[in-house]
Amino acid sequence: MASTQFNLPDVFDTVAAQHPDRECLIRGDRRLTFSEVVDRSTRLGAYLRSRGLGAHAERSALAGHESGQDHLGIYLYNGNEYIEAMLGAFRARVAPFNVNYRYVADELHYLLDNSGCRALVYHASFAPVLAEVLDRLPRLEVLLQVADDSGHDLLPGAVDYEEALAASAPEIDVRPSPDDLYILYTGGTTGMPKGVLWRQHDIFMSAMGGRNILTQEAVETYDDVAAQARAFEEGLRFLVLPPLMHGAAQWVSFIALNNGHAVVLPPDTRRFDPVQTWRTVEAERCTTLTVVGDAMARPLVDELEANDYDVGSLVSIGNGGAPLTPTIKERLLAKLPHILLTDSVGSSETGAQMSHVSTASGEVATGRFTPGPGTVVVSEDLDKVLEPGHDGIGWLAQSGWVPLGYLGDAAKTARTFPVIDGVRYSVPGDRARHLADGDIELLGRDSVTINSGGEKIFAEEVERAIAGHPAVHDVVVVGRPSERWGQEVVALVQLAEGRTATAEEIVEHASAHIARYKLPKDVLFLDEIVRSPAGKADYRWARAQVQQAGG
Known about the structure:
Elements: H1 8-18, E1 23-27, E2 30-33, H2 34-50, E3 71-75, H3 80-91, E4 95-98, H4 105-114, E5 119-123, H5 127-133, E6 142-146, E7 159-160, H6 161-167, E8 181-185, E9 195-199, H7 200-207, H8 222-230, E10 237-240, H9 247-257, E11 262-265, H10 274-284, E12 288-291, H11 293-306, E13 316-320, H12 326-335, E14 340-347, E15 351-358, E16 368-371, E17 375-378, E18 385-386, E19 394-399, E20 405-406, H13 410-416, E21 419-420, E22 423-426, E23 430-434, E24 440-445, E25 449-452, E26 455-458, H14 459-467, E27 472-482, E28 486-495, H15 503-510, E29 522-525, H16 539-549
Parallel strand pairs: 1-11, 3-4, 3-5, 5-6, 6-7, 10-11, 10-12, 12-13, 13-14, 28-29
Antiparallel strand pairs: 1-2, 8-9, 9-20, 14-15, 15-16, 16-24, 17-18, 17-19, 19-22, 19-23, 21-22, 23-24, 25-26, 27-28
Helix pairs in contact: 1-8, 2-3, 2-6, 4-5, 10-11, 11-12
């Protein structure tokens, strides 16, 4: 464990002091240096303080599921304002949290009410949906509207974001604490979203740059942070494609920023466009590209195979949040043989846990990972840590820098963060095996496991087996009730444009990779597989499609 307790604004400011004039946030023609982001986020923090927001109870007086701070919702597309809002809130001792911009009015109301939201920064595009729920949110007092091309006027009581910054002081009257919260709401693709409460120190060490990506060595002091930032004469450029409303995109952005590198965003962040992506890599000489699973990687490699781009600046592609199948990895590495292709595993409740690196000259695999510090597999009954080479299946768990709990939910906090042999673990529900060679085989989330004929079938394993079929563009697997089996496997398949395949051909292809009892009993062909904006499978949507289709 690090000897110093860190807070995120001081980490950022330490880095900014090393490179005040280095570009920090880039999106098209909008280019901000580290010193400009310090100034803008400080002004935002000062504005929040002027509206009476801040911390009201210190961590020592609170239970793990409780917050003693006011909360700022961030209801934005990707842009510099997202990072500024996070840093500005941290400076004011206000806890920011992510808002899914795809939510309809009732979902938005649930989230803002569940979070106890007192302030919201939002793009003008979302004003109509927000207007539908404002009268049901009496605690929401501060509205900051970010102008865009939607043409929507300010909502009643709202203040223009840029005007608020311009009118605010360039200094702030409060010091952040390592105990102050970073709140990350889960995606809600398998249940209702929950707010995960992290201490700033813990999320920094776990997933926001407190550890060296390659060696996992943790920084010990702010001098170490400064030295780390000085290590590169020229900063790297991280092209972040997933929405910042998802944890993986926030984490990779802060890993970049907290090491003195630039975050690059595509000019149009409202849609994922492979052509725009590769043109941005060319124009900005991006060194790292972040994707989420096949849903992003497949169209990217399709475009790269179809047209020529200057991608010599790329040294790595990082994937997280959804699996990359071996077929897609092989195609990427064939076009980009000089890069490192890294799969990372983590969750809202654990931070970064495991990784696997593929290269053009090495083995390409999916599902096996090298665990990081504190990552283990615990027993079914949550009573012991399982040694490598154990029989059976356990729960993927994390110790060390883990969250405090779920906002407002003491019971779920106790279930997810058990104490085993005196050590507190985070066990959010992923099934895994700790293999004899030390690697961990990730099987999938228990909540989407299919129980068929007394056997547990992991949806992600079946998805990987089907995704390798050359005609399959995307696939999601769920269970449906079966009189004979209890549940049976159903695959929802979107075929690639211009390709055809029968259900029998899909199943036959999968049979070469998984046991027959895991094979789909039915295949539904759909025009489109709906995923989250970050590319994650939406299993609630998939179950609804299966139910609608009937038996």
